[in-house]
Design the sequence.
């Protein structure tokens, strides 16, 4: 409080940006998604192929992705076939590890939990964190509808769409606006995660449960079959990984200490010139 | 100022801790494979939650999807045991299962034994359903058999019985101390489900050995490891503790969840 008065104009106000609900669920999801991804890859390794339709084609072709190890005259290789195109992925997919002791799993042990083949354990951990993720999602939606976070920051309004080109230029030139509410690209990103990707990955996950198929048969019709649902589940996983990478790059580019502080304490340093309101700190 | 420094240090150490978690690799969590560990025990509670939630959500009579004949596009993929080598099974197979009986034992008023001909002459049900392996693949086939529920009623299930234990002929695992025979179990809701049939026919043929001849139980709202092949005895019990490692089945003993509907 003894700081000079002009600090406020050069630094921008310190605003209370993230509620306890947003902060708590954020870190719960961070942990959940870490375990869900790595156990998900373990589960995928039990049958490393993705299909379109109700069933898996063993005597007909409906696979869009297959990962495997194959013997060649020059020794075993890892191969990945995507949409009929086959690539040599030795060292990454299908076959990995040291040359004298290779491991023939689709995804290498470095990115699976457990690091060795154990489908049962992978499923136990996956479902534990799936329940946790859904519980946090429920709490976040409830709290964010009530406290206005969804309306204020997440919903994409027409004015936000108009602001997209300008926001892209700002991001490309690393001129970030730290406002009181989320910017156009931020809204689109978080709207996509909360209203498209999270619901999709939960529903496609449920579509793989034979019990849920009996309870909610419309799941099979919505996604075009259990094996298509499994494929969509995998693709949404890739989209969430892409979101995570961009998310981390943006946190680093936009000022990691300020961004992390807002997600831990709730307090966020806005850009200079942001109008001050009651409750802000300087 | 000291408050700010503390906060900054806190942030810095959280970043370091977070990146350490990612860089350390995943053998950090291999301890969760130990089924007796406390972390694993807590996580397995989620399987109980799944079972209870699905039992509350899914009506006891609601059916697994049945498909049209045109959806049968391939043979039923065999998995697990495909050619049991126990002496009892080989002897029965040599006689085309003429001497086979299915026994209903345990907590029943009238223990029963049915020959294959008796089972084949009971009211039959055919269903074209999707078989989902825990590994992730699915296969659609037509299964023909007689519903289990009326057979259990013939035996008269005692009020205290809570589970059916399904004993099978196949030596799924051969160890130095002898063969481990396949078994699994279900609650009575799955046992009495209208699509739970003792199948003896597959895709208009006699059920082949690779798919569980002479009798395979179908529990259509669960994964493949809950569809016991080479079935010879159904035992009604009030506890699963005394079988195998007490988790209710061969794969369940190896860490798979007991309910199997997810």
Sequence:
């Amino acid at each position: 409080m003894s700081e000079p008065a002009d600090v406020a104009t050069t630094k921008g106000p310190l605003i209370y940006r993230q509620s306890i609900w947003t902060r708590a669920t954020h870190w719960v999801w961070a942990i959940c998604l870490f375990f869900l991804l790595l156990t998900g890859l373990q589960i995928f390794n039990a049958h490393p192929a993705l299909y379109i339709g109700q069933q898996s084609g063993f005597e007909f072709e409906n696979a869009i992705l297959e990962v495997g190890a194959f013997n060649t005259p020059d020794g075993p290789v890892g191969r990945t076939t995507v949409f009929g195109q086959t690539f040599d992925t030795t060292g990454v997919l299908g076959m990995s590890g040291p040359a004298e002791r290779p491991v023939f799993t689709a995804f290498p042990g470095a990115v699976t939990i457990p690091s060795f083949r154990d489908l049962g354990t992978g499923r136990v951990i996956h479902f534990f964190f799936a329940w946790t993720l859904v519980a946090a999602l429920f709490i976040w939606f409830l709290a964010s509808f009530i406290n206005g976070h969804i309306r204020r920051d997440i919903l994409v309004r027409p004015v936000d769409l108009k602001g997209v080109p300008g926001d892209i230029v700002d991001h490309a030139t690393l001129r970030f606006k730290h406002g009181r509410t989320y910017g156009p690209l931020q809204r689109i990103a978080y709207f996509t995660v909360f209203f498209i990707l999270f619901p999709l990955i939960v529903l496609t996950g449920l579509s793989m449960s034979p019990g849920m198929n009996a309870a909610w048969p419309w799941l099979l019709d919505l996604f075009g079959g259990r094996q298509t649902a499994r494929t969509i589940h995998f693709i949404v996983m890739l989209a969430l990984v892409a979101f995570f990478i961009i998310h981390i790059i943006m946190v680093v580019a936009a000022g990691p200490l300020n961004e992390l502080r807002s997600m831990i304490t709730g307090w966020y340093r806005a850009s200079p010139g942001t109008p001050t309101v009651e409750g802000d700190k300087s | 100022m000291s408050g700010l420094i503390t906060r900054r240090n806190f942030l810095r150490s959280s970043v370091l801790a977070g990146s350490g978690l990612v860089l350390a690799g995943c053998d950090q969590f291999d301890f969760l494979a130990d089924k007796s560990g406390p972390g694993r025990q807590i996580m397995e509670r989620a399987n109980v939650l799944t079972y209870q939630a699905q039992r509350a959500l899914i009506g006891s009579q609601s059916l697994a999807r049945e498909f049209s004949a045109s959806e049968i596009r391939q043979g039923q993929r065999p998995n697990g045991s495909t050619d049991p080598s126990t002496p009892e099974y080989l002897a029965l197979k040599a006689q085309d299962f003429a001497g086979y009986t299915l026994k209903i034992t345990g907590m029943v008023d009238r223990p029963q034994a049915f020959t294959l001909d008796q089972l084949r002459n009971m009211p039959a049900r055919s269903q074209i359903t999707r078989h989902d392996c825990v590994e992730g693949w699915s296969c659609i086939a037509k299964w023909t058999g007689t519903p289990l529920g009326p057979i259990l009623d013939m035996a008269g299930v005692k009020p205290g019985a809570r589970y059916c234990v399904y004993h099978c002929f196949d030596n799924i695992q051969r160890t130095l101390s002898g063969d481990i025979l396949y078994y699994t179990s279900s609650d009575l809701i799955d046992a009495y489900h209208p699509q739970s049939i003792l199948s003896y026919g597959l895709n208009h043929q006699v059920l082949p050995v690779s798919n569980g001849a002479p009798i395979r139980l179908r529990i259509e709202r669960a994964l493949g490891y809950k569809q016991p092949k080479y079935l010879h005895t159904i035992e009604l019990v009030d506890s699963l503790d005394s079988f195998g490692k007490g988790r209710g089945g061969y794969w369940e003993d190896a860490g798979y969840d007991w309910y199997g509907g997810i």
Remarks:
- Chain A touches chain B through 54 residues (CB under 8 Å).
